[in-house]
Amino acid sequence: MLRLTLTAALLAATALAAQAQTVPDRIKSAGKLVIATQPNYPPIASKDPATNQLTGFDIELGEAIAKELGLKAEWQETAFAQMLPSIQTGRVDMAMAGMSDLPARREQVDFVDYMESGAQFYTVTAFKDSIKTPEDLCGKSVGASRSTNWPKQIGEWSEANCVAKGKPAITAVGTEGSVDARTQLKTQRLQGGVQGSETMSYFQKLEPNTYIPLGKPFTTTLVGIPFAKTAEGTQLRDAVKAALDKLQANGSYDALIKKYGLNDNPLKPISVNQGK
């Protein structure tokens, strides 16, 4: 009797797992998963300058998710600000572009969280003698992509760590993107910058003796894949989560984490709508 009970339980669990990974009929019929990305955020998503092909952690992970679901990944390059509207209007099925799972964004979409990130202060070697800690940025200009919540977080950090201690506030500068922030920092129009902690080691290797991280990340953020708040979107969300669970269980996820130098950024277990 016990053996039969265990067998029944295993069969039920297998059935539930299979059901969880069932993609919506429309997507199954199309045979493809349309994924928005913006290839300007290495090592998460970028283009190989030699081949002009998409590359990065999100790109390879997205390909692995699609394969796990029996689909082909079709990538659509989309401006970051247009990703959520594109999901809501059905132009794309989901997005993989290092997007933070934020409460405000969850008013429009649901997220499957798959990586940890954090806002990281940094400067350049030209300021290494005068800027050695985050507190040395008080009274200075610090840039970060305006399409993120980093400028707001810089202001909040400044209030708590500069103004509250009688020091001048940081001037938070919203830039066109992280590339623009780094350019302005290298030309000394800015004295500091903020970008995701997952990108820091990549740029230190790409441009040796240029960037200096200041302290540890001052926030913790979950990076997620957004989905439409519809019956179809929820079904796809659950299928993608199940695929990611499987990729973690079989070691594929860890292999990609290691390949792209993201050893401080894995999220285990995969979660849904847990960003703060």
Can you offer a commentary on this structure?
- The chain is of the alpha/beta class and 276 residues long.
- Helix content is 37%, strand content 24%.
- It contains nine helices and 13 strands.
- Strand 2 (46-47) and strand 3 (54-55) form a beta hairpin.
What's the arrangement of secondary structure elements?
Elements: H1 2-20, H2 25-30, E1 32-37, E2 46-47, E3 54-55, H3 57-68, E4 72-77, H4 83-88, E5 94-95, E6 109-117, E7 119-124, E8 141-145, H5 150-161, E9 171-175, H6 178-186, E10 192-196, H7 197-206, E11 211-213, E12 221-228, H8 231-249, H9 252-259, E13 266-272
Parallel strand pairs: 1-4, 1-5, 8-9, 8-10
Antiparallel strand pairs: 2-3, 6-12, 6-13, 7-10, 7-11
